[in-house]
Give the backbone structure.
Amino acid sequence: MNASAQQQRSVVAQEAAHFGNLAADWWDPKGSSAMLHKLNPPRLRHIRATIDAHWGSDPDALKPLAGRRAADVGCGAGLLAEPLARMGAVVTGIDAAPENVAVAKLHAEKQGLAIDYRAGGVEALAGETFDLVTSMEVIEHVADPSAFVAALADLLAPGGIMILSTPNRTPLSKLALITVGEGLGMVPKGTHDWQKFLNPDELAALVEAAGLRVIERKGLSFSPAVGFHLSDNLALDYFLTAVR
């Protein structure tokens, strides 16, 4: 296997092409990635709280990640990478779709943010280490979840934290994300394969098999009154945080 193929082992070409086709309006809060824009505020609240708890940073500090390296794997066009950079991190974002990376680079430049964006799978980062490793709504799209988690774990520096998020495999997620979300055009058709969703115990087992310790599970729920919000209910979508 050549080096290029090794760096793409986690990538499903059809999945990369699907998300690459959405690149042009990724930053449009009313476009095809509208749901990601709605997910981002509670996602960032959870990440910030986790950072503060783990490193003892001041909750009011503007740059709690100053001096730290962060990797966002499956970064899309940078919805998470940019806030991490604003929090002071030296950020590397990698995505399987070159179209997403092109949009991410252009958007970051316009924002005056220096982010190292790369096209490829997680394997392309082998040999590097990061204080914070994130991968949001990605594992359900990769070729081999176990190998993917192992590769993520290898990126984590001693004392670092890894935060993953993914839909749970429940009747609720199937109804909300596929029947309603894709059925009503709120999410592009073909985005989700419910059979590839992992429940929290399955994902925790993969993380622990990779040599990390799970320290928190947190739910991401939805209600008509407040939209997406953090909760203790893991039925729809959830975060899993781990350390070495």
